[in-house]
Design goal:
Blueprint: H1 2-36, H2 44-64, H3 75-83, H4 91-141
Helix pairs in contact: 1-2, 1-4, 2-4
């Protein structure tokens, strides 16, 4: 049970970090963008910086998007399966089956957390690239 609670905290941590990355990308675009856009035409660096910003936004959205995380046991299902069944299950059997069920949920959630980690790494890389591209575009303009 504690492992599932810790996973819940990790999910919120990923979402907080994704929000910070998206905020940093937005601030970068709003501060460096106008200086780089001062002129008539857009250089490739500007287009690439805008694409990086959109990539950070998409990765953050992938983390923010609601998912069904397995973290609770349905009490109705437990009662129907173990108590109201033809043969009442022993306490040991109930503990054993619940432990197996929660472990399966933990493993299933781990796959989602791995996806969050990949999305966060992509967003971080794109943010770094966005900053570099905006700086290049600004230098080219002046």
């Amino acid at each position: 049970m504690r492992a599932l609670s810790e996973q819940r905290a990790i999910i919120e941590s990923f979402r907080t970090r994704a929000g910070l990355l998206f905020s940093a990308a937005a601030v970068t675009a709003s501060v460096l963008g106008p200086r780089a856009l001062h002129g008539q035409r857009w250089d490739p660096a500007i287009w690439l910086a805008m694409l990086c910003f959109l990539g950070v936004a998409a990765a953050a959205l992938g983390i923010f998007w609601p998912r069904e995380w397995e973290s609770v046991v349905d009490p109705r299902q437990v009662i129907e399966t173990y108590i109201e069944a033809g043969e009442v299950a022993s306490v040991e059997e109930l503990h054993r089956d619940l432990s197996i069920y929660m472990h399966d949920d933990f493993i299933e959630n781990e796959h989602g957390l791995e996806q969050f980690g990949v999305l966060l790494q992509i967003a971080s890389g794109l943010l770094t690239l966005e900053v570099i591209l905006w700086m290049i575009a600004t230098v080219i303009r002046f």
